[in-house]
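Researcher: Here's a chain I'd like modeled. Treat it as a single chain, no partners, no ligands.
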Amino acid sequence: MKYRITTIGLALVFAIGQALAQEGKKADHILVPYGKQPRQVLHLWLPKTKAPSPLVLHYHGGGFVAGDIREKTHNRTAAMCNAVGIAYADVEYRLLNQAMLHEIMHDCARAVQFLRYNAKKYNLDKNRVASYGESAGASASLWMATIDDQADPKAKDPVLRESTRLAAAGGFWVQATFDVIQWPEILGLPEDKTPYWGMIKSAKARLGEKRFNELRKHMDMLHNMDKDDSPMHFSPGKEGQGVHSQRFVDVLEKRAKEVGANLIIKPGRQSLIQFLTAKLKAKPNPTVGQRPGGKEASKPFPQHWGDPPAIQTQDYRKLPGGYGFGSSTLANWIQEKLDNDSKK
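Model: Modeled as a single isolated chain. Structure tokens:
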């Protein structure tokens, strides 16, 4: 009976451990204010490194009308970044019912400036900063990558004197420009069927013609893009004429070729994280055939396999298929993919 109770207890501990692993590492600093507005807050995950660590910022999606980070204090991507010595910040920003779009972008820029200003406090390498996001957050990263440095050396606020430039940027389901006036042509839609058209008409009436046109240029990533922009990695879009349309990606690719910008279009979170990691000059991502303390995989996984398990156990072993060494979780995943391929 005692043995059974002990076994049950160990099983429960293991189950709890697995549950915690699935939801990711808890942030080291929660709801850190990077500005005075209530939504200008971020969570921060820090690796245990002696040398200043590179940093990845994440901007959430939600069309600038929804989304927050309040309950998202555990994060698997943050855990993976920390495991290879990269700090991770999850950024919240104001929404369109509180601020105009250009002000929201300045929130995103300020988060970068704030962390650079506090680099010594958090042991960050201010020269190695990247960002990514989904949908609205992806477009925020694109804007950050293509806009000229927003640092103001004469600003009274010392945070605003810091650079906004990134080492790399990326994301999923990006919009090619925040100049919505271009969207009907890009998406092949009449104006009254174009997403956010009503917002644009309202903004123009409120701002006046001159200021409206100034902001159109300021918010147009296609216009701002040039060969000196940060390296970029975005996912393909989706079918149709919605805000995640492949039509945005096609226009973005065409513009990048015209100006010689460094742009990769490729699906998969694994590919994006590898890209950001490489640009930050950190160690290889442990989920891509390697774990801390293990040996590097001898070859990359086939693209059609998708992403490997984000959370893996620490029981290292030789992996099937000549993929080096890794956990039993990774071994089982590889074997499953190999078996599926053999049936085709």
